[in-house]
Amino acid sequence: MPLWLREHRWRQTLTAVYLSLPLRGARATPASIFCSEQYLKVSIPPFLFEAILYAPIDDTNSTAKIGNGNIFFTLYKKEPAMWDSLTLANADKEKLQYLRENAVLKAHEKAKEETEAKKITKQEHKKYALEATMKVEEEERKRIEDLKEKERQKVAKELELWKNQQKDGDKYKSVQKKGELHQEIEPLKERKSEKINKTQIPNEGTSKTRLKSTKGRGSCSIFSQNLKEEQLPAPRAAATIKVNFTPRVFPTALRESRVAEEEEWLHKQAEARRIINSDLSELEDLKEEEKNPDWLKDKGNKMFAMGDYLGAVNAYNLAVRLNNKLPLLYLNRAACHLKLRNLHKAIEDSSKALELLTPPVPDNENARVKAHVRRGTAFCQLELYTEGLQDYEAALKIDPRNKNIEEDAEKIRHLIQGTMQSS
After folding, report:
1. What are the ranges of the TPR repeats (predicted)?
2. What's the CATH class of domain 3-88?
């Protein structure tokens, strides 16, 4: 039961009411005070103060100060007038309840409006901050672009200056070379002129002999060239050289390859292409990617997760027709058949999956466990508990730490014992 605070002092002016409420050793916080237009409540467990005010007040501008073991309220009146009393007299319980609920409802609406206003203000501040940040980034980008442009112009000027210097250097070098050549040619010309002067009046005998010797040399060279041409062999007849290479499908060397495995892989690929290109009515309207067994398997998995077990079975059926060597297709289809209560088909698909999951290796342990469990579940649902127990025990041999399988196997053993005792 709350203890009502009856002791309070109040005074008023034409526009305000001043209320002092003792706390009696209790500790109050701003959250302990609730004030609306005509309802005032102070809840400090176990103390409680509640007042239905005589007239409406301006709860927005009114204040409450906590100090020295008291709460001092300054309540501003909405209409200037003198009150006959602090609280509304002769108010029945229904009216008090209505005023209380109305005050709480208005407080909730006001808090909601304030929250929305704060949210809008926060969004505006974020928008302003974003615009300011974008403006700063734009200015920074422009500054960096200006610096780049200035640097580019500076480098272009330096490059142009260097090119001009190179041109001037080349011109100077060419002029210098021409001067050196001129200096070298002048003494050569002088020497040549001296030689010509010396040999201007030669002897007639020497000139004749020289002419004869040149004639003889020229005729000999002509005959020797004709003889050489006659001695050249005739060109060979055109022919085609054929080089036979070992036919290789794979780019590896023969000593590094496993021919038998490669040929088996090629055979499987050819068989898969033949099946895909065969005249299946289901493939006529499918897209190219929809003819991929892996794509159909993923589609079946999604349908199974959504609970569309018939659609998943259809997807797995088409994937099996495209490639019947994938054990996961049979394993997933067995799970669908279990959901659809097609127990014999579930047993067939689980058995086919186990047949394809050979030889048993660590990589396919998880798939073999699932196949044994699903086949064992189908056997148990057909009340063939002995066969189901065999599959569960086979799964336990593969994964002995699986507690769920161990518990299911124990339940099947109890069922077998119960049926044996009843018989």
Report:
1. 369-402
2. mainly beta
pTM above 0.70, yes or no: no
pLDDT band at 101 (very low <50, low <70, confident <90, very high): confident
Burial track 78-99 (b if 16+ CB lie within 10 A, e otherwise): eeeeeeeebebeeeeeeeeeeb
308 pLDDT band, cuts 50/70/90, is very high
Fold agreement between 3-88 and 292-417:
no
Q: How many residues does this entry show for the chain?
A: 423
Alpha carbon separation from 289 to 24, 64, 80, 303, 354 (Å, rounded): 81, 73, 82, 18, 28
Tokens of 344: 């014999």
Burial degree of 403 (CB within 10 A; 0-12, 13-18, 19+):
exposed
- Please state the rounded mean pLDDT for residues 96-119: 82
CATH 3.60.20.30 is held by the domain 292-417: no
pLDDT tens profile 349-360: 999 999 988 888
pLDDT above 80 (res 167):
yes
Question: Which residue from 406, 402, 364, 368 is spatially nearest to 389, judged by alpha carbons?
Answer: 406
Contact assessment for residue 379 and residue 371, using Cβ atoms and an 8 Å cutoff: no
